[in-house]
Each structure stands twice: as C-alpha cells, then as structure tokens.
Design goal:
There is one protein chain. This protein is an alpha+beta fold. 20% of the residues lie in helices and 27% in strands. It has 3 helices and 9 strands. A hairpin with an 8-residue loop joins β5 and β6.
C-alpha cells in the first residue's frame, strides 16, 4: 500500500536533489496486517534521505496510508489534507483524493496563504457518463483522475520509451526497493506466482 504517499515524498525529497549526489533513503516502518488474510491494511514509513551538512543535512518524509482511516474522497475537508509538505518557509497541503487532486492550499511564514481549486477534465456535459468508484460518483463533466497514468502507460511504448516522462526508471526502482524493504521488515510476502524478482 501507499504508492501515492511514497511518490509524493520522492517528488519532494529525492528528485529535487542533484542526480550526482542523491542517495536512496533509509527506511523505518510499521504495518498493520488484516487478521484473516495477513494483507497490509495500514502502513507508516519514515524515509531519511541522506545529505551532507553543506546541503542542509538529511531530509525526512513520513508516508502514511490505511484502508481503515477514511479519506476525504468528496473533498469536504473532514479528514484534513492528504499531503502536507512542510519546510522552513511554510506548508503546502494537497487535498484528497490524492490520485484526483482538485485543491491545493499553501501557507507561508510571512502570513500569505493561497487556495487553488480546479476541476478534472472529463467527457463533458451531455455525455451521460458518470465516473466514480463504489458509491462515490462525480459529475459527467469530470474525470476520475487516473486517466493521466493510463495515457502515459499507453504512450510510452508506442513512442519507444521504456520509462515515463514524469517519473524516471531510476526513481521507480528505488520506490519499489523501499516497498520491498517495508515488506521484509514485517515478514510480509506475496505468493510466488504474483511476484517476480530478477
């Protein structure tokens, strides 16, 4: 679980560093397993990205995800922001759902704040299409958000690319290494017929 949480941390703390000096993070984690099946239902991961003192020292990110804790899928702000990025200059908040963002809030130490809202592109009014998941449906003029991922997955091989335009293969590999490390720390193993390692 938690690929969106991890991706956000890597966008902020890994890919912003120089490719010559950045290093994979150290990983400390806890998970809660669903009792009947042993599947991970909640995870907390602390990532420490090493940097030397001249660069400002280590960077730390905390990724949390859970099937049990409600997310603010209807954007009513009940569960708070899905992402909080904090620095010495302020805070950026990304509101749920994280895969279909429609709102970002930013707060700065000098007292300024901004709130940006936008709708998702979609099939348009009159299409008679209602996108959604389970009981959560969105107006026919809005998409569900994951189409960008699907488009990139389809376009990459047709354009002769082995990686995405926005997340390089190196980054994807390190994120998968982090997920493997979390599973190893908690003796969580997938059946061999669905996991292949080289």
């Amino acid at each position: 679980m938690g690929i969106y949480s991890l991706t956000r941390i890597f966008w902020s703390l890994y890919t912003t560093q120089s490719t010559e000096t950045r290093k994979p993070p150290r990983v400390v984690s806890s998970i809660q397993k669903y009792r009947p099946t042993g599947v991970d239902e909640a995870a907390n991961i602390i990532l420490t990205f090493p940097r030397d003192g001249h660069s400002g020292g280590n960077l730390v990110g905390i990724a949390t995800t859970s099937f049990r804790i409600p997310s603010d899928i209807d954007n009513k702000r009940a569960s708070g922001p899905a992402v909080r990025s904090q620095s010495t200059k302020g805070e950026l908040q990304v509101w749920s759902p994280i895969y279909r963002q429609t709102r970002i809030s930013s707060f700065f130490l000098m007292g300024l704040s901004k709130d940006k809202h936008w709708s998702q592109p979609g099939p348009g009014p009159g299409s008679n299409r209602h996108n959604g998941y389970l009981d959560n449906t969105y107006p026919e003029s809005e998409g569900y958000g994951m189409f960008w991922e699907a488009d990139e997955e389809t376009l990459a091989p047709t354009e002769g690319r082995k990686a995405g335009r926005y997340e390089v293969l190196d980054e994807s590999t390190i994120v998968m290494d982090v997920m493997d490390e979390v599973r190893n720390q908690h003796d969580l193993h997938y059946p061999s017929n669905i996991k292949v390692t080289h």
